[in-house]
């Protein structure tokens, strides 16, 4: 029995959901370390602040006023939003006053930007297609920026000839996630999903190539750098490298 195109697309989307959720919780060891040691050390809240904005945009995108029948968009990104706020709470509780000021300032700015986008969207566009396109453009642009953020860690790999700052399984998951959602977009043409996740697949593939090139030149455990440096390096990678481009299956 041959499966329909829609059923195949649904299966691919479900696989993408599983991988994406895994990427959502990938920062958990770092956050647990902060709560356990009661210090943020040299970790930065920046990736989590950025991901909050991404989730807010996609939640707004999935609302019935913009894109009807997109419950999955809202639920997945709402889950991500809750997790990112939990991650940020560790910096608020154990970070310096500068951390707290930065977090609250940026969160306030993100709400202002979202409010401006919402006001323009509802005030100037009066069909679902136009509204979803307008908001979707912001989501895709932000997603691409997040997908390309590992360029800094990739450059570090090249200059140090070491992959200790670039976890293999995180890179592999990002690549597979990008491939899943790119396939999902191709099965039923969707520019928003295709562009952002196509970029993510290419980014993940480039990371895997670098891993293959520099794995042998990476210092072994008996000569590795201090653990704190490794964790600091991991923070240059976004906590959800997939920056989720979800639509209703």
UniProtKB/TrEMBL annotation:
Source lineage: Eukaryota, Viridiplantae, Streptophyta, Embryophyta, Tracheophyta
GO molecular function list: sugar transmembrane transporter activity
Subcellular location: Cell membrane
Keywords for the protein's UniProt record, in alphabetical order: Cell membrane, Membrane, Repeat, Sugar transport, Transmembrane, Transmembrane helix, Transport
Source domain of life: Eukaryota
Membership in a protein family: Belongs to the SWEET sugar transporter family.
Any Gene Ontology CC annotation: plasma membrane
PANTHER family associated with the record: RAG1-ACTIVATING PROTEIN 1, SUGAR TRANSPORTER SWEET1
Parts of the chain that traverse the membrane: 12-35, 71-94, 106-127, 133-155, 167-187, 193-215
Keyword Membrane assigned: yes
Official protein name in the record: Bidirectional sugar transporter SWEET
Membrane topology: Multi-pass membrane protein
Pfam family, one: MtN3_slv
GO BP annotations, alphabetical order: protein homooligomerization
Protein role: Mediates both low-affinity uptake and efflux of sugar across the plasma membrane. Mediates both low-affinity uptake and efflux of sugar across the membrane.
């Amino acid at each position: 029995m041959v499966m329909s195109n829609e059923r195949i697309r649904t299966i691919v989307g479900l696989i993408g959901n599983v991988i994406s959720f895994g990427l959502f919780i990938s920062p958990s060891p770092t956050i647990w370390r902060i709560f356990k040691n009661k210090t943020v050390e040299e970790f930065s809240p920046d990736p989590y602040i950025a991901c909050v904005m991404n989730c807010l945009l996609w939640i707004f995108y999935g609302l019935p006023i913009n894109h009807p029948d997109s419950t999955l968009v809202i639920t997945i990104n709402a889950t991500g939003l809750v997790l990112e706020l939990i991650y940020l709470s560790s910096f608020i509780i154990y970070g310096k006053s500068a951390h707290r000021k930065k977090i609250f300032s940026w969160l306030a700015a993100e709400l202002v930007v979202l409010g401006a986008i919402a006001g323009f969207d509802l005030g100037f566009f009066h069909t679902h297609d136009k509204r979803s396109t307008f908001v979707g453009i912001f989501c895709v642009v932000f997603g691409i920026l997040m997908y390309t953020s590992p360029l800094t860690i990739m450059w570090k790999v090249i200059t140090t000839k070491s992959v200790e700052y670039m976890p293999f399984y995180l890179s592999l998951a990002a690549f597979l996630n990008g491939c899943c959602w790119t396939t999902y977009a191709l099965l039923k043409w969707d520019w928003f999903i295709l562009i952002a996740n196509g970029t993510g697949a290419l980014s993940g593939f480039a990371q895997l190539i670098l891993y293959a090139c520099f794995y042998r030149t990476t210092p072994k455990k008996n000569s590795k750098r201090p653990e704190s440096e490794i964790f600091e390096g991991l923070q240059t990678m976004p906590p959800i490298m997939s920056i989720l481009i979800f639509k209703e299956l």
